[in-house]
From TrEMBL:
Name the record gives this protein: EngC GTPase domain-containing protein
Domain of life, per lineage: Bacteria
Organism, as annotated: Angustibacter aerolatus
Keyword Protease assigned: no
Pfam families, alphabetized: RsgA_GTPase
Statement: the UniProt record of this protein carries the keyword Disulfide bond: no
Residue ranges of domain EngC GTPase in the record: 105-200
Keyword list, A-Z: Ribosome biogenesis
Length: 229
């Protein structure tokens, strides 16, 4: 079938809007002082991928490839957690030669941090500024409760809302009962989803949160509700 542009309308919102920018991020961007390059305005952007000393970002004019500026290099040398990470909002400076650098990382609202491999005291930011952290574990063959508990601890410490997703509910003898036991044992206060791919179904225990309310103040009702995917 030939491609029909009318069936695929262009997005009506900017890339940054779709990436989650709001007035608070724009205000934080305005408050940060960075190097000033005449004729090349700095940009607000969000990190989409990171490499050693470089990262891909999404700005209002689209994706860009960037390297770390001098101030970011200095900050990382002082604190490994200052490394630009996926989800970070950053200040990008375009240069006359076409090169872009990340000159500052805006203060994070949330951050998923794990201990650095090798037992050092420093950590590693896995993702920043996320609203929900989903911990996914299969009900078959045997769910690892210790792993669920460890990952949920990371999620709670991040400041985001943890959510436990238990897959293969259709393969377990009594998936929802097993999920209820797991939720009570290691996921208290956390919404739990049970997926059943072959049945096209997901059962969810919803958390009640008021807008802007910290996730640790959310309450979880005991009842389970089912809905079709």
């Amino acid at each position: 079938m030939p491609f029909d542009p009318s069936l695929h309308p262009a997005p009506t919102t900017s890339p940054l809007t779709r990436a989650g920018v709001d007035d608070r991020w724009r205000a934080a961007f305005d408050d940060v002082e960075t190097v000033d390059v005449a004729g090349h305005d700095r940009l607000l952007a969000r990190v989409t991928r990171t490499d050693r000393g470089a990262c891909d970002v999404l700005a209002d004019d689209g994706p860009r490839r960037t390297t770390w500026g001098a101030d970011v290099v200095a900050a990382v040398a002082h604190d490994p957690l200052a490394v630009p990470s996926t989800g970070d909002w950053v200040v990008v400076q375009p240069w006359p030669d076409g090169h872009d650098t990340v000159e500052a990382v805006l203060p994070r609202r949330t951050a998923v941090v794990r201990a650095q491999v090798g037992g050092t005291s420093s950590g590693q930011v896995l993702a920043a500024n996320v609203d929900v952290v989903a911990v996914v574990e299969g009900l078959v063959p045997d769910p690892d409760l210790g792993r669920i508990e460890r990952f949920l601890a990371l999620a709670w410490d991040s400041g985001a809302m943890p959510r436990l997703v238990l897959t293969k509910g259709d393969l377990a003898p009594d998936g929802e009962a097993l999920a209820a036991d797991i939720g009570a044992e290691v996921a208290a206060g956390c919404p739990v989803d049970v997926t059943a791919a072959h049945e096209g179904r997901v059962s969810t225990r919803f958390a009640r949160c008021s807008p802007g309310e910290p996730p640790w103040r959310c309450s979880v009702p005991p009842a389970w509700a089912s809905r079709r995917c």
